[in-house]
Amino acid sequence: MALAKDYASVMGRSNDIMKEALGLDYSEFESGSVAFDYEALMKSTGYTLEEINKIQSRTAVGNTPLIELRNLSALSRKYAKPGYGARIFAKDEAANASGSFKARRAACAVAHAKKLGYKGVIAATSGNYGAAVASQAAMQGLKCIVVQECFDSNGVGQPEIVEKARACEAYGAEVIQLTVGPELFYTFLSVLEDTGYFNASLYSPFGIAGIETLGYEIAMQCRELLGKDPEMVVCTNAGGGMITGTARGLIKAGATNTQMVAASINLTGLHMASDVQFNKKSCTTGHTGFGVPYATDPDHSDVPRSAARPLRYMDRYVTVTQGEVMYMTEALANLEGLERGPAGNTALAAAFSLAQELPEDAVIVISETEYTGAGKHVQPQMSFARENGIDIHFGNPAEEDKPGVNVILPKDPGCIKYKEADIDHFRASLIKKAVKAHCPDVAKLTDADLNFLAEETKKDVAFVKEVLKTL
Amino acid sequence: MVKKGEWVRIHSIVLKADERTAKLPDDTQKCDLEMWTKGFLQEDAEIGDQVTVVTAVGRKETGKLIEVNPYWKHSYGTFVPELVQIDRQLREIMFGGDQ
Questions:
Q1: Residues of chain A with confidence (pLDDT) below 50
Q2: Which residue in chain B has the smallest CA separation from A119?
């Protein structure tokens, strides 16, 4: 008998569909309370760093160049006190097959799907990950479906997302496009159930393990080139996978003193599920609309437990503005001769400003660049913003920036200034959400739960207890 | 008439506005959840007809026929004068303009 495919029926079968589509039973990692065994989940991939490296070298992924941005470093020094202004390096992830670091996640997920005998893979993503999965599926001989949130209710597509759909089709994938709304998950589940394909989730342990090579390469390249580990690595932050995987890779390389900074574009005030505001954003990823909810509640993704847990690895969280990222993207092309997509440059805008606080011999690495193309470029993004009534002008982003209303281009590079976010506030928020979801009666929390929450927030049990007092 | 076997784009309503149960902002709550995909048309039809297609992965999907031989129309956008000014400013600061 055919299964009922209405919303309630499909959502009700969510757990079973997921189990089938991941080849992994998450219940074996659960304690029944707040804590779950994160490291066991990560080990469940069964792949070592070397094996992942092998998979990636077969699939045109990894070993990307580490490029010193000499002119941008020199420009940054002009706004620093004497003797300050760190050397800025970029990991040129645009060199991966499909043009972004997402190929690292996709290579492992697709290889794993193939090993388990799945005929195809599905990913729910409006970002570079779609093209990455489609590219890897093409290379490894699997079918691929990408489900994306792309249009507003007038059928107007965000140019950056439309370009990503085009890329997926170029790699032979089917692209299912939807209007705005979280019920994308229903369509996603329904197609997973009908096809029996593998859920190549961004948040599976296979995907996150794939990013560890990025951190490992950064450490090795810095040691070879500079004789030391980088003082700071800045990661553009959305779903949290980039900083999680990169930090884990650095740790595996023994680079334990590198400060990990997450950077997102500040889109405070814009609702991510708003039809009207959907096309008022001039960037579609790397912003606080994903960055903050995923950091404080990593498990609200498309898997039961996310392998991306950014607050475990983050030392600082900073924000920049849309205008600053657009400006830096133009600067990267004009002063370094590297034309790259804007989304990857969130970390660069932050690094340009962070560098001014570090001495000249310090090293900052931004962990990615991404490919650029029609739609995914400063010019179409800014002309689209203008068509949508966004006011674009030169000014001081720190004073005038209003997401959804304007894009303030820095009137000079001295106006590019990151803002420090209150990371302890996010940590407290994570603790509260985890307790509310898994063990609302605080008195029943176990020592294992407290230790887990301390690890989840890169703090100690005393911090966790202080937060719990406020509940 | 659109011939069977042509590559087409179809549109459907996944959830009507009043069927949407997720926590949504008011503006989105008023909209249907809509879906588009592409595939080979399975029978001769007219634009606007309900049709079945076989997609790139071989999946059958039904919806309203809206486009034949669909192609991408996104671009590098129209001229943004600020970009030229940024370029000039950066070169001026770094290399002293034309000097």
A1: none
A2: B57
CB B48, CB B17: distance < 8 Å: no
What is d(CA A96, CA A108) in angstroms, rounded to the nearest whole number? 14
Give which of B8, B61, B83 to mutate to test A binding, by max A Cβ within 10 Å.
B83
* pTM of the complete model beyond 0.90: yes
Instruction: Give the separation between CA A121 and CA A22, rounded to whole angstroms.
Output: 10
pLDDT in tens, A330-341: 999 999 999 999
Q: Which residues of A touch B36 (CB under 8 A)?
A: 151, 176-178
The fold of the A55-99+211-419 domain, in CATH, is Rossmann fold (3.40.50)
Q: Where are the domains of chain A?
A: 55-99+211-419, 423-469
Q: Which of A213, A281, A220 has the alpha carbon at shortest distance from A242?
A: A213
Q: Is the pLDDT of residue B98 over 60?
A: no
Contact B78 A273 (CB under 8 A): no
Q: Is A374 on the interface with B (CB under 8 A)?
A: yes
Amino acid at A113: A
List chain B domain ranges: 1-70
Name the band, by pLDDT with cuts 50, 70 and 90, for residue B37: very high
Asked if the interface predicted TM-score (ipTM) of this complex is over 0.85, the answer is yes
pLDDT tens-place string over residues A152-196: 999 999 999 999 999 999 999 999 999 999 999 999 999 999 999
The answer to whether the CB atoms of B24 and A173 lie below 8 A apart is no
CA atoms of B96 and A356, how far apart (whole Å)? 22
The CATH classification number of B1-70 equals 2.30.30.760
Q: Which residue of B has its CA nearest to A184?
A: B33
